[in-house]
Amino acid sequence: MWDSRIFRKELLHQIFSDKKAWIVSGIISLFLSAFMISGYLLDKTGSVGNVRFVQILAGIFVFAVSLFLNLFLFFFVDGISFRFRSKVTVKAGEPDKNVSPGRKNVRNYSYVIYFFAILAGWLPSFLGLYPGLFTYDSVAQYKMVERGLITSHHPVIHTLLLGGLTNLSNNLFGDVNKGVLAYTVIQMLVMAACFAYMIKFEERAGMHIITRILSVAWLCFFPPNVILVMSCTKDSMFSAFVVLFTVLNAEWITEGGKFRTGKKEGVLWILAAFFTILMRKNAIYAMIPFLLLFFIVMRKEWKRVLPMLAILCVLVVFYEGPFCAAVVKESEDEREKMSVPCQQIMRVYKTRGNDLSAEERDEIEDMFKDTAFDYYNPKIADAVKSNLKIKKFRKDRKYYIKKYLEYGIRFPVEYLDSFLLNTMDSWYPFSKMVLDGRGREGYLSIESREPATSRPLIPAIWNYYRIYVDSPLVQTYPVSKLVFSPAFYLYFLMFTTGYLVWKKKATAALPFVFIWLLWGSFLLGPVVLIRYYIYLYYLIPFEISVWKIYCD
User: What's the pTM?
Assistant: First the structure.
């Protein structure tokens, strides 16, 4: 039996004697304190260059509190995981002799149970947000198909699916809502299939049935999780494929012989990686270095891994080459990749204009249309990068690069401030988020845009979800805002990664390398939106399972 008194004594001893725990906790705490103080300075003064002695003292205090909190959580999680670990372990390659044939059959069908349980949990929200949320980039994708002018600005496969269904619905019924309904149902099925696999992973890891029920409840009732399931945005299915890909990586890499992988898992791995790449262009920047590292770690299994990588490469090359060439009429606008540089140059103009010569101010003014100066917002780059004079940029890229570097050398603090302000909502939980290019504050969008209309079948649920558009609950109150902020789930990821390093399971942390690389790729984007980081929310049950697997 597990003795809580012994656990407390061992915990106290370990806290003061484990040097590695101190080091790992110290690294996490260093980042956390830097995030908190930098975010506070940016939020209150607009620049990290305004740091004073009192902020330094506050940073030291946050570091100390975080250090001991992380130490406690390391050993607390380890003790709790040990307490509830599975009494039955299965060695690699051996059948589970401790499970009766009848019980084994139940487990074989448990995936189907999880799948339908998730769908059932989503049903009330689906009726309340009926027929789905035609928000974000949905209108642009619909118009692309309607006009027959598909670009690579959005994922082509997603544009064809969403735009194709809504355009077909409009042509057949004179109403895009039926197309929105069809797309939402398809998205729910795909996401439920991916999430059910994660819950199945929990079962195979020996997680208690109550924990699995709570995981289903987390996916079905935590508002951001549900709203994004009902939203017609590429980020929803993208996040589901990220979850599936991460779980499959864990099954391949799990130490201790708890899982076995076969051909089915190999096919799923290829499909999950392929659709992850398809659904977001920035995913490729995380996928390439990860796959190289994955092959190095799995080199002893190269006869199985190499064919998977080869098939994945062939699929991606075919999709990006012949498939897109046959469908895409116009290449991606280069301005999307200029979000960070455009914001940095504009910030120099806005905050240090008096230090620029008249000629330099004219140079910057000649780079952008007037609208960029009128609607500049330090937290979202849309107004600036979309008003970059692209023809001028294409004619003389070297000139732009030269000017960008010159201003960066002269005004490094402004460049740093610009980057941090543009990304702070992903790592600092207490600032207000924005929703659109003109800086309108908000957390999530649930208003369907024309030509679609929202027709809730349960108005009370619709009114409930309106709270999460923009209210003090998600934008102001510190405790609740913390729980809803992407920064909270970033810390969760930091803790899980640190826990595995502390447990000397660095190899097991490999699935999280992809998540970190993916998170980093979003820092180069135009804005921080919940939909970009929702995969961090969805992965919480998986991370808790990982704690348990490696507690021994």
Answer: 0.92
